[in-house]
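=== Structural record ===
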Amino acid sequence: MARPATGSPAIDLFATDAVSGLGIAAVYLAVLAGAFAQASTGIGLGLVAAPVMAIVDPALVPGPILLLAIGLSVMVAWRDRAAVDRPALAAALAGRLPATAAGVLTVAVLPADWFLALFAAILLAAIALSVAGWRARRTRTGMVVAGAASGYMGTVTGVGAPPMAIVFQHGRGAQVRGTLGAYFLVGSSLSVVALWAVVGGARADILVALQLAPAVLLGYLMSYPARRIVDAGLLRPAILVICTGSALVLLARALA
């Protein structure tokens, strides 16, 4: 996928000499798998799809993947709207807003790579404590902290879901998916607006996201029967596995 001189992603995914059809197929499959995971458990789109998209064409992240996340979050939040934990959502968003601004300032001053290993270590420690029996409390203060950690990590590294997911790992399936969907809808919208304000590229990002939208829709539809399986006792293990994958992705990027 050749990038134009402006640094924006190729507007037509199918009109490129830089990447074979195999690369384009890999992007579609990664988006499909990530959308399926997130619509089933509450997280997964960024973790699964973003690394593949970055390998195929670095300009495909973060703009198009943020737009895809917004679209998926709208569908998930609407589907599970009755189960959204509104007080927890409000507290998490209150923590995210200033943390996002802090993340922007951090990236402007220091290389993001400095934080990858640190965040990975913190995540792995939280996962280990969870497996050992520690249970994060979903108090107002706890949600503000989780929202702040998510916003800061997401801004600095592009991986922000795990802090919120760890706090919600013991929740009911619909509650987890609906609340996280609403949270990521607002968070991703803020991030993409800030991105366009700083570096531009809105038109190209939108057109690429539209071409990948069918994969998101298919992944979302596939999640309907999967939710029953996940909600039967697999939600917490799935969240911990995905969070572990996030930590390992951060660690691999730090070592690279």
Summary: The mean pLDDT is 85. The chain has one domain: 21-255.
